[in-house]
Amino acid sequence: MRANADSQEAGLRQTYMYVNRVGEDSFPEREMILLDQAGYTVALNRIVVDTLPPYVPAADRPGLRRLLRRVAADDIVVVLELAALGCSARDVLATLMQCRKARIQVRCLEVGNANLAGQPDGPAAKMLRALVRMEVSIRSLRSKDGLAATLTNGRRTGRPPSLSDQDRLRVMQALRKGLTVSEVARRFGTSRQTVLRIRAAES
Q1: DSSP alpha helices (H): ranges in 38-87?
Q2: Model pLDDT for residues 147-165, shown as the tens digit of each residue
Q3: What is the pTM of this model?
């Protein structure tokens, strides 16, 4: 029995197909064959295609955005692979949570026929959450290691100073001569906050 037979029995439920074909604008014949082999029959007016690189976030894929606005609660969106739903584990998970909130079913042939946007999380959604946690942990460790290496090598961190050491001395000389903070800032083409920080550091 075809997968869309269930949607006919469910009444108004519709099945949609989304494909992101990088750099290709022809009809997604190969994808249709794969869906047919998996038991899905999708009407031509419910096929949406983007032609964007996989690194483009889901929010910047116009076809996907239009599809998610069009799909009704309890409808089904079928994709061939998780990469169709986003550019990273975090992005794919965000798309699935958006669909969950809208009560849209999402099925992906790459990871089986389960509803990825259902509750509670299935194995695929749990895997994505684990990948997101791993990515966050790796970024945090890289940031800490980079900061430690910078401090070890004696390099400054943060924004470089807007004035050179010589200019900072000249700023203090001007202040000691009685010029106001605003006058000094104008003379050196900097902000009052910078002059105040120099004065506080040199006091």
Answers
A1: 62-70
A2: 666 667 666 555 556 678 8
A3: 0.61
